[in-house]
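tool=predict chain=A
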Amino acid sequence: MIVAAALPLVAEYGAAVTTAQIARAAGIGEATIFRAFKDKEEVLAACTAEAVNPHHVQRELASISLDQPLADRLTEAAEAMRAHLTRMGAVAGALHASGHRRDRTPGRSPDDRAPGDRPADSRETAMRATRDALTELVEPDRAALRLPPERVASIFLGMLFTQLHFGAEGAGADPAEFVDVLLHGTLSKPGSGT
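tool=predict ok
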């Protein structure tokens, strides 16, 4: 409840958000926050963890009906992924813009973590699970595809990340158009560009 109430505030104010603002948004007393969290830094860390948590988008992907045409399934997937990545970017961007830095524990560098705690390990696991969820969406159409569903899912993710990374023009593209290009390319007549 506290983290859910804090997330939009952190996305708006970054580390400048106050625990009083969070308490008001959650409909609780400020002291309640400090019964659940040691300090505001722990609240911010919990918000960051929640924003990057891939389980939400993976559940959304799993809920997409396989009875729909492939293009509709992938359009829903693109919308879900875009919302997830936008939320991640809003929280991380606001925290960064407000001067907040992760892993600022005095005397400890990010490399002091145990191998299993490395963000790259958890990111790879999350990415693999997301790619697997997308593969399941594509699998029913395996016979109609030139590439295996796993490869289509990887290309989907690569195109989506690139589209969102390279600025406002690509980020505003219609998910249906994105999926159409993925499935049918950009040529008006197949083979005419060779």
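The first helix runs from residue 2 to 13. The mean pLDDT is 85.
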